[in-house]
Design brief:
This protein has ten helices and three strands, in the order αααααβββααααα. The protein has helices spanning about 5-25, 30-50, 85-95, 100-110, 125-135, 175-195, 200-215, 225-260, 260-265, 270-275, and strands at about 140-145, 155-160, 170. A three-stranded mixed sheet has the order 2-1-3. It is globular and about 50 Å long. The relative contact order is 0.11.
């Protein structure tokens, strides 16, 4: 029996509180567990919302029984979702910094609603202005990934402020390890949807196939197997993980020592870098 939407909303509120506490304690294992619970609860909330809406509720067939799901539609968020929330939902699924095209493709794959990439052009600047004026008043901000050497905004990569700082650092091996993280997190999200009786959309399978094509041993033919993608991606990630983690954590420690709160989220400006290096 599905949970009432009010109970799901209360559970989501509790999970957000737990996530903030785990993040402040730098308990990465707890953060991962709570995020997984939030994804399942959020998917159930979207399904409950659609079920109670007279416009989007399931039609019935001639004898009054609800038709079986086709397996091609994922839960839809309410119409008019702000672009920052769309980006947050996509990045939460991907689990690592990502470029606008991938963020858009991920959102459309799991929510069957467009996320126009041109709307992302000014989003990070808007978020930085909001943080500068309001501080930590919001539970999260869409912020920048930071280069490991200059701690400047990594070109074209967005992240979530509630992530540990090390996850938002881009070191030499990070593009590949983040790609593998994207593949693992996407496959795991599809497994959770399937387990909850919410079959992933065709767009979601297409997205997973794009990941699998570029991971040795992840894809053979037909639809990719999420479990196989996860195993293959983890095998390759293990090769790079120790070095990448070390470089990221070293840069994160330097950032915590040198940067203020705003710079930790949005990076050091180019002008500041030029001044520090003595370039005129």
């Amino acid at each position: 029996m599905a949970e009432p939407i009010e109970e799901l909303e209360a559970r989501l509120a509790e999970l957000r509180t737990r996530l903030r506490e785990a993040n402040r304690a730098r308990d990465t294992a707890a953060v991962s567990r709570v995020r997984a619970e939030m994804r399942i609860a959020d998917a159930a909330w979207e399904a409950a919302l659609a079920a109670e809406s007279p416009e989007t509720g399931s039609p019935t067939d001639a004898d009054g029984a609800a038709p079986r799901p086709t397996g091609t539609v994922s839960p839809r968020p309410p119409q008019g979702v702000p672009v920052r929330e769309q980006v947050h939902q996509a990045l939460t699924i991907l689990g690592a910094p990502a470029a606008p095209k991938l963020i858009s493709a991920t959102y459309e794959a799991f929510f069957a609603e467009p996320l126009v990439t041109t709307k992302l052009a000014s989003l990070r600047r808007d978020e930085e202005r909001s943080f500068t004026s309001q501080g930590h008043s919001r539970p999260y901000y869409i912020c920048a990934a930071l280069t490991h050497d200059r701690l400047a905004p990594a070109r074209g990569l967005l992240a979530v402020s509630s992530w540990p700082l090390g996850r938002r650092i881009i070191a030499p091996l990070s593009p590949r390890t983040d790609f593998l993280t994207h593949a693992i997190e996407t496959a795991e999200h599809m497994q959770r949807l399937t387990a909850a009786g919410l079959p992933p959309s065709e767009e979601a399978w297409r997205l997973l196939r794009r990941f699998a094509f570029n991971i040795p041993g992840a894809y053979e033919s037909g639809e990719p197997d999420p479990g196989q993608v996860i195993s293959a991606a983890r095998r390759e990630a293990a090769v790079h993980q120790e070095t990448d983690d070390s470089q990221r954590q070293s840069a994160a420690a330097r950032a915590r020592a040198q940067l203020n709160d705003a710079q930790e989220l949005f990076g050091v400006s180019s002008l500041h870098i030029l001044r520090d290096t003595g370039t005129s």
